[in-house]
Amino acid sequence: MGCAVNDRKVAVVGCGFVGAASAFAIMESGLFSEMVLIDANKEKAEGEALDISHGLPFAKPMQIYAGDYKDISDAAVVVVTAGAGQKPGETRLDLVKKNVGIFKSVIPQIAENNKEGILLIVANPVDILTHAAVKLSGFPENRVFGSGTVLDTARLKYLLGEHLSVDSRSVHAFIIGEHGDSEIAVWSSANVSGVPLNDFCEMRGHFDHINSMKRIAESVKNSAYEIIEKKGATYYGIAMSVKRILEAIARDEKSILPISSVQHDNHGISGISISMPAIVGRNGVEGTVPIALSDEEEKALQESAMTLSKVAEEVL
Q1: Which of 252, 308, 237 is nearest to 276 (CA)?
Q2: Segment 178-219, tens digit of pLDDT
Q3: DSSP symbol at 118
Q4: Is residue 69 within 8 Å of 110, Cβ to Cβ?
Q5: What is the pLDDT of residues 222-256, one digit of tens each?
Q6: 264 phi and psi angles, rounded to 5 deg
Q7: 123 — phi, psi (to 5°)?
Q8: pLDDT tens for residues 146-186?
């Protein structure tokens, strides 16, 4: 990163449910010592900054304040959650036109004030908006990426952990593709601490693999809709996902996470942002990880990419 960046500073643009929950998770993490919150409604940002700051005696010292775009000039990472939320009955792709419009005003202001930081896009539909952010910011592709299917993958691990009565952190499996209805659960390489998933299932007394896989994948795909229906919005899971991605960046962990970034001939996919496992560290995306897919998964990934390409052509 250039010398203009303060590695201990983060900015959150958008203080709705997701932005506020993310800011709270960031404060709890102790990863940064300065956080600026920006929202079209400055008072909302000020209120969130105050509320979160009052927990600091129980956490690590940190300066948290509401600011303007000029305050982000030295932020190492700018987390962008600004955008309209998904309403009950609305798909993530229904949101796209509204939010591309919002990005056309937000991203150029970020790029004008911050030259060296990383843009982490969290607003939905995240793949299209990540692509829009790359174009609108003019930043190198490695420094603009989306939260992608990091949360979907966590949901998959959680459900598999529940299904098998095993710590979800010992489950290794990915959701790839669109963060949305065409996402793919990569069952072919899923394992529990190196033991192939089906073998582990049988050890645990589960033999109906096809139906279990179908049920769990559906449950992952529909969990956002279910949460939105029950409580109006999803924000804690994504906030934890944002914290996890920031951890990989701030600590230069080179962790492998299924983030959304512009692909270049990855499984034949080019010129669209989509989620694939990638190495994430201090410089952002440090490279994609080749993942073996079954023929069925490969076909589903191509279809997911086509779905996104069509939408991107319409709006970008």
Answers
A1: 308
A2: 999 999 999 999 999 999 999 999 999 999 999 999 999 999
A3: E
A4: yes
A5: 999 999 999 999 999 999 999 999 999 999 999 99
A6: -130, 100
A7: -60, 150
A8: 999 999 999 999 999 999 999 999 999 999 999 999 999 99
Q: Which of 8, 37, 269 is nearest to 131 (CA)?
A: 269
Identify the DSSP state of 86: P
CA atoms of 311 and 316, how far apart (whole Å) = 8
Per the annotation, the verdict on 179 as an active-site residue is: yes
And the tokens for 197?
């998933």
* Location of structure tokens 């598999």: 160
Structure tokens at 290: 């080749």
- DSSP 8-state class, residue 2: -
Whole-structure pTM value: 0.96
**Across the chain, which distance is largest between two alpha carbons, in Å?**
58
End-to-end distance of the chain based on CA atoms, in angstroms? 29
CB count, 10 Å around CB of 77? 26
| The pairing of beta strand 75-80 with beta strand 118-121 | parallel
Catalytic residue among 172, 179, 264, 267: 179
- Strands (E) across the chain are located at 6-13, 34-38, 63-66, 75-80, 118-121, 144-146, 171-172, 175-176, 184-185, 191-192, 195-196, 255-257, 260-262, 273-275, 278-281, 284-288
Question: How far apart are the C-alpha atoms of 186 and 197, rounded to whole Å?
Answer: 11
Three-state SS for 184?
Answer: strand
Q: How far apart are CA 38 and CA 10, in angstroms?
A: 11
**Domains and their CATH numbers in the chain:** 6-146 (3.40.50.720), 150-315 (3.90.110.10)
The residue type at 40 = A
DSSP assigned state of 84: P
DSSP character at residue 283: T
